[in-house]
Each structure stands twice: as C-alpha cells, then as structure tokens.
Amino acid sequence: MRRSYVYQHGMRGVLTDDGRFAPGVTSILKRGLPTPEALARWKYTNPDAEEIAERAATRGTALHAAIASWLTGEAADATRLTAADIRAVEEFANLFADHEVLGVEEELLVDDGELLYSGAADHVFVPTTDLHCVTGEVIPSGVMVVGDLKTSKAVYESYHAQLAAYAHALGCDYACVWHFTPSDVRLHWIDLAAGWRVFHAAHTLAHELPALEKRAQHTK
Prior knowledge:
- The chain is an alpha+beta fold and 220 residues long.
- The protein has a single domain, classed as Lambda Exonuclease, Chain A.
- Helices cover 43% and strands 25% of the residues.
- A five-stranded mixed beta sheet has the order 4-5-8-9-10, sandwiched between helices. It has a three-stranded antiparallel beta sheet with strand order 1-2-3. It has a two-stranded antiparallel ribbon with strand order 6-7.
- The termini are far apart.
C-alpha cells in the first residue's frame, strides 16, 4: 500500500500504521544543513534562482520518469525531454545493459526502535557484469545494488548519506549514482560506511531539534 505524504516540523514523510511520523531521508538530511542561509545567499547572488530551480526540477522529474519507464519495460514520455536528454536516456540504457532489475521506485520504511525514516529508492538491481565507476572503484556482478539518478551539477556529499539510508533499508551491500551531466552519464561509487555515519548523525539531529526549538521559543 502506497502511503500518503505528510509534513511535520518542516519535514516531509509518512505516517506509520500506529500514527507516528517517519520523516523522509532527504528531509532528514536537509534538517541538518544550514539550508535557509545557504539558499538566501544563492538567491541573492542569482537573480534568476527560482527559474533555474524550477527548470532543474522539471528536467530531473522528466528524466526520472523516462528511466523508470525504460526499467519497467514501458513506453517513455519524451515530450518534456530535450534531444540531449533523450541521448542521455539512451546512453543510460546502454550502460545499464541487461542487469537484473529487482524494483523501481521502491518505497521504504525503517522502524526498528532506534531508527524511524521513510523514502523511495529509484531502483534496485543485480549487475550481471562488473560495474566500473568513474572514481576507479568496481561494483562486482551478482550483488544487490541500490541506484539513484542525479541531474545536479555535481555528486554531492549528502548523496552518500542518502544512498546509505536506502541501502540499509533494502539490504543492499552496494550503492551507486548515475550522474546525468550535460554531455554524458557517469557512474559514481557511493561510500556506504561513511554515508551511514553521516545519516545516523543527521537522523539523531532531525529527531532532537524540534523539542529543542520548542524549548528555545519559551526564552524569546
């Protein structure tokens, strides 16, 4: 059953069967970053910030939808994709080759007493051949891998924490990012050990901050 998204404490997530709030992985990570100040500085130095963000989000959504359709064997809607993006989807198909797809847009919910979070992984697969990442690492064939598509300017630090949370929930020993640049698609290695430490710290912070902020309000 697909759960509906809700918002609490400025975070997006879902409710468990007993009504507790399970924040999403990306919301947890954003909670631990100085995003308001950073975003304000970015908007100040980029007059077209809103237009740039909207355009990037639209492109990312369209690419995700096209790849998800390809992975599930359905016809992809290319009406919102540029010629370059269509070539990128075709390049991804060539890179992905005949790997075994186990799931697409896999929803996850971790509730083990210590950790409570939710999310959705782009895809889970088992490579039939070794995967060679642009950073030099190799993901061996025959293992479970959680993969994520990114259209951002770079493969940022938070992606390691995001994919580590997904891998933990799905029982994957490896994770990777397919980075769609303006010119090609690059496969990036994800450091699950370091990413998990960062996510665990962010998870603690995200769950503790609301109570501290509420207490702080009484001193203002």
